[in-house]
Amino acid sequence: MNRSLMPLMLAASLFAVPGAVAQEASLPQPKISVTGEGEATLSPDMALITLAVVEEAETAREAMDANNAAMAAIIAKLKEEGIEARDLQTSGLSINPQYVYPNNRNDEEKPRITGYQVTNQLTVRIRDLAKVGQILDQSVTLGVNQGGQISFTNEDPSAALTEARKRAVEEAMAKAKTLAEAAGVTLGNVIEISERMSQPQPMPMAGKMIRAEMAADSVPVEAGENSYSVQVEVTFSLAQ
């Protein structure tokens, strides 16, 4: 062998070893990702209702005046029932012309304004659930003729969310252990964890539904329970 080539071959062999080590070190760390879901229920302590007054008249002014009078009476009654100003919010106000359009049943040549419609929408937060049916009934008597959407919620759902998170993580841990054992590997530390929450959904309570004590002529209302759901994704390292 040519002695002049030996230094070059020795240098190449020296550089080859660190390169192999670096390549081995750059291999991705084995890991496993699982999802877990937890759910907890909570009895609602608050109701949100939407009430609207719709008035029509020949002029916008007349329609607005009639609407203002009805809505003012409704707000005054709500305050008499103990609803605080912070729990009353105007959530929509519209003034729309009403038209008659040409068709085979009239002699109109073009669209013509026949009057105006004014709609005022109020969102009410009711903290005493026993008053929900009564307030709905009285509001209709005072002039509410549209709306009525109702949802039950919780002012502070943190306790239910905490419980749902714990259950979600417990489920994820159990899944990861089962998968690791089946694959013949050892579960390592948690590398990453993230969560997603869903909006609470009404959940009927069989045999223990909350029923507000209401007058016989008020609107019957059932509050039920709210279900809070949390989903977590947990990534673990694996040891061969």
UniProtKB/TrEMBL annotation:
Keywords: Signal. Residues 1-22 form the signal peptide. Pfam families: SIMPL. The keyword Transport does not apply. GO terms for biological process: DNA damage response. This is 26 kDa periplasmic immunogenic protein. It comes from Nitratireductor basaltis. The lineage of its organism: Bacteria, Pseudomonadati, Pseudomonadota, Alphaproteobacteria, Hyphomicrobiales.
